[in-house]
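Data card: per-record layout.
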Amino acid sequence: MNWQKDPLSVLQDTSRTFYIPISRLPPLLQEAVASAYLCMRAIDEVEDHPDLDNATKARLLHRMSQNFQAAVCRETIPDNWFAEFSHTGTLEEVTLRVGEWAKFAPERIAPRIWDATAAMADRMAFWAERNWRIETEAELDQYTFSVAGSVGLLLSDLWAWYDGTQTNRVHAIGFGRGLQAVNILRNYKDDGSRGVDFFPDGWTLEQMQNYAKRNLALGDAYTEALPSGPALDFCRIPLALAHATLNVLADGQDKLTRSAVVQLIEQVCGGK
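The structure for this 272-residue chain is written out next.
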């Protein structure tokens, strides 16, 4: 097992959407956002794991939450949280190395990242225990807050910590919810094949698309209010990709092509 990869290399392996905006951040902020993303990606890989039953997923997620809650400083964070899986190939590298990602966070903001990750892990354990059963729009709001709206709040805290950038926190939640709703639309066929349905009872594709559009509009407001700087540079890329993905899904395509992604990022970044 090759664990020589640095955090940004692992990030690049796990997300083409977020690697680029994170890699463009200034160093200290980059460490904070990369730490947060990798910790939460570790959770996501457990949540989506095809070979673990829901009870095992919930147990592992609760363990992650408890370890984050027990953290006092970097020295109190264990390196190997899942020793029983280290040599089985069952868990992904990003999950097995979650202790490293926790320690990668800058010292003065690390407790906020650990708190957010602990809370998310417990929330995802709850959803695993109920097989992600969503019956109403209120429950959809609960789920999209758990997995993404709360990340919008964390990002707002990271911007403020780094350079004092202030944001509308209601819009921050909508920003996260909108991105997650697009993910639900993009993956709903695959989710259905594993017995998971994030659509409220009776909802059509059009209703979920409208839900995504409403929340992406809040994401637009969130981003438009940001001053020039790293927060704006970061947020514009995933938001633009979400809007473009929603458009191609509405046209009957499965996802954005790689060339379309590259072209869109070049447009957003202005050739930088």
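Known properties of this structure: DSSP finds twelve helices and no strands in the chain. The mean pLDDT is 92.

See the next section for split statistics.
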